[in-house]
Design a protein that fits this description.
By secondary structure, the chain is of the alpha+beta class. It contains one helix and 19 strands.
Length: 287
Amino acid sequence: MKILLIFILHLISGGAAGIDVIGFLGGRVTVNCQHSDYGRSEKSFCKMKTQTECEYIIVAEYEQRNTWIQEDRFELFDDSNKTIIVSIRQLSSEDAGTYQCGEAGSWSHQFNLRVIRDPCCLGSKTVAGYVGEMVTISCSYPEEFESHTKYFYKLDDHHIPTMMDTTETQRGRFSISDDRRSKVLSVRISDVREADGGVYYCGVGRGGESVSYHSFYTEIQLQVTAKPGSTTHTNLSGSSNTITVCACVALLLLLIGGLALIFLRCIQAKGSSSNSREEGSNSEVST
């Protein structure tokens, strides 16, 4: 399934050193590989075994562009915009090493993945909140990220777009703060809605023109539910409204019926009066 290939050194345009990508045990990293000579050849992602041998993890044909290709915990996306996106989730210590991403017969870049174990960032956690209330999500971060810009993301299928970062303080119902003394990133969501539920990440972004990356050090599962009792209250309100409407309709029908009865009696009274006058006239003629 995986193939060992010997690379011709002049194709390794990214250089032997590459950049350091920092990931955390149980976390996730996304690496972007860019190049100006981006073409229509197959794109690949592999892990270096020796200086000249690289074990392929994923190979994507041109026809597979703009589609996520998955192989176990690894994913590759060719976005046809001079960028290959590589993602590794549930990082383990065995994932550490040198990787290469690039285009067959044209160009490639290397990066060195370091997987760190830190008490601040161990796996995922769950945060629960009620609709209409405020939720606070807190993420501790390692000391090496103290001066970095912190990012807050939300998982959208395979993509992980940025919701906001610490260069701003608020965006709509979301606000963010960075306590560097305690090394805690906090995000507050006001007026929480059911649509806010999902998977979020705290992380940092680093890199240059050729290779950049995002390291997601904490995963948060946000669960949003209706507050206990709110459903009953809603049902009672609905029942009360129904009773009110029915009472109004009944009252209106009674009013209409009463008016109709009065109108009918008026007509009958007029008819009786006319008959009496006619009978009186007939009596006078007979006399």
